Structures are given as structure tokens and as C-alpha cells.
Amino acid sequence: MPKLGMEPIRRDALVKATIAEIGATGTLDVSVAQIARRAGMSSALAHHYFGGKEDMLLAAMRHTMGVYAAEVRGALAMVQGPDQRVQAIVRASFSPRNFRADTVAAWMNFYVLARRAPQAQRLLTIYQRRLRANLTHALRPLIGQRAASAADRIAALIDGVYLQQSLGRDAPDGAQATAQVLGYLDLELERAHP
């Protein structure tokens, strides 16, 4: 079995340290030195693996989106029927791995980064399109032509709950967040089938 080199281990440590540091400070105004210190290495080594802070932020963004995508795929694999598919997507959005204080802070700061970094904008656009496509696909058998607009509203609610959480001081409550968004889904379904 081939030996795992130090590069992937250190890169992973730096990505996780980036997310943790953004979560601790609540801002993108963290230095490579702060991130490297949190990862237990020198800033020179951090620069060696990523080149600069923006590259670290983009890697952290990819990592966070990858975790989210894996949660959604896993949740969708275990359900049957369109109503369960929508619920699975919403639940994955607020799962313990995705709806933690540091991850919420990272997501909010990724939105800020996307305003000035084209690569971050591209990643965020991919995430938004996938979320809306998954929701639209699941909603279409339930509410027909209104599926795309309802998907937009549900996606906006998910983002809104993250925004509210980023402004609050309480620990993230995934169950409450899920209930909020699924409550709106119930309204959409009632409207479709009065």
C-alpha cells in the first residue's frame, strides 16, 4: 500500500484551520500566519502548499461545498418520492456537519469573497444552481409549473437562515432551522392542493 505523503495531510490541516479561523474571527480578515499557527505549521509552509490566502480560502470553500454535496447525495440515496427528496435536501443543509458555527461563518464569508474573487463567484454559482436544480426536480411532481419559483424561495430561505445564524450568538440549531424551511414547504404544498 503506498504511503500517504505529508502534502495532502498538511493541505487538509490548512483547509480545516482556515474554516476554524474564519469561524473564530467571523471575517475573511485573517492572515496566513494565523491560519498556519492554527494548523500547527509555519506560514512559509502554508504559502508553499497554497501560494496565498485567497488560494486557501478557495480550498476551504471547495471543502465546505464538498461536505455539503456529500451530505445531500447521501440523504437523497436513502429516500423515495419527491416530498422526501425535498426534505432530504433541506435536512442536509442543516445537518450537524454543515450547520456549525464555524461552517456558518465560513459560508457567509464565502459570499463576501465571491463579490471580489471570480473563482469564488464561480464556485458559489455552481452551488446555487445545483441546489435550485435539485429542489426544482423534487418539487416538479408535487407542484408542477411553480416548482422553479418555489425552489428559488426555499433556497433563499436556507441562505436566510444561515445569515440569521451568523448574526446570532446562540449555537446553531439544525432541527429548528429545518422546521422553519419545511414549514414553508408545507405552505407551498397546501397551496398546490387546497
Structure keywords:
Tetracycline Repressor, domain 2, 79% helix, 194 residues, mainly alpha, elongated
Please tell me about this protein's structure.
Helix 1 crosses helix 2, helix 6 crosses helix 7 and helix 8 runs antiparallel to helix 9. The protein contains nine helices and no strands. The chain has a single domain, classed as Tetracycline Repressor, domain 2 (Orthogonal Bundle), CATH 1.10.357.10. The protein is mainly α and 194 residues long. The mean pLDDT is 92.
Got a strand count? Answer: 0
Individual helix count: 9
CATH class call: Mainly Alpha
Per CATH, what is the topology?
Answer: Tetracycline Repressor, domain 2
Short description:
Helix content is 79%, strand content 0%. The chain has 194 residues and is mainly alpha-helical.
Topology diagram in text:
Blueprint: H1 6-25, H2 32-39, H3 43-50, H4 53-77, H5 82-93, H6 101-114, H7 118-143, H8 147-167, H9 174-192
